[in-house]
Amino acid sequence: MVNYRTNLFHQADVEVSFEVPSLEGAEALDPALANDAQKLCSLRGADVEGGVGPFGLWVLASSKLEEKTAVFFQVFKAARNINSTKPVVLMCSDPTTSSLNPNLYKPTFAGFVDTDIAKGKISLRSLIDRSVIESFGAGGRTCILSRVYPTLALGKNAHLHVFNNGKADIKVSQLTAWEMKKPALMNGA
């Protein structure tokens, strides 16, 4: 796990590239979920160990990870009812552990990424602006926007982590994070 700490009071921009050396451990995709990324994400979540993934970022994370929002990938073997043998890549934003406030609606958001993961690489870019997390998988082929309301992971107490909860080794080949400052002037005012 890589820990990058930044003051996320205004905005952060994070780019990470993952290398996936082997897809041998990828689990078979349940044919019943082959067209329902949302349901697959809610069932599999970031904390469920898989073959290849879940791997990605925990953003707006508290120091002891009591609060964290996962933005991640998981790779599956194609379901039998799909005509392609190309591996299926799920991208998910999982806010179920994003806040200690029990009264919040915290749905997962997901999509399948149209990319050839067999080439061994995939990128993730996340823009974090207070409570908004906008993520782009594989150069923007899949985009997810979500809103979270942490109680601990605010301002200087917000952290960023890279994680892998899969059995397969995943390499972080690049990680760049920028803290964006508040503009001095906006719209000429």
From TrEMBL:
InterPro entries linked to this entry: ConA-like_dom_sf (IPR013320), Fructan_Metab_Enzymes (IPR050551), Glyco_hydro_32_C (IPR013189)
Membrane-spanning residues: none
Occurrences of domain Glycosyl hydrolase family 32 C-terminal (ranges): 11-179
Keyword Flavoprotein recorded: no
Keywords: Disulfide bond, Glycoprotein, Glycosidase, Hydrolase
Matching PANTHER family: BETA-FRUCTOFURANOSIDASE, INSOLUBLE ISOENZYME CWINV1-RELATED
Family per record: Belongs to the glycosyl hydrolase 32 family.
Name of protein: Glycosyl hydrolase family 32 C-terminal domain-containing protein
Organism expressing this protein natively: Triticum turgidum subsp. durum (Durum wheat)
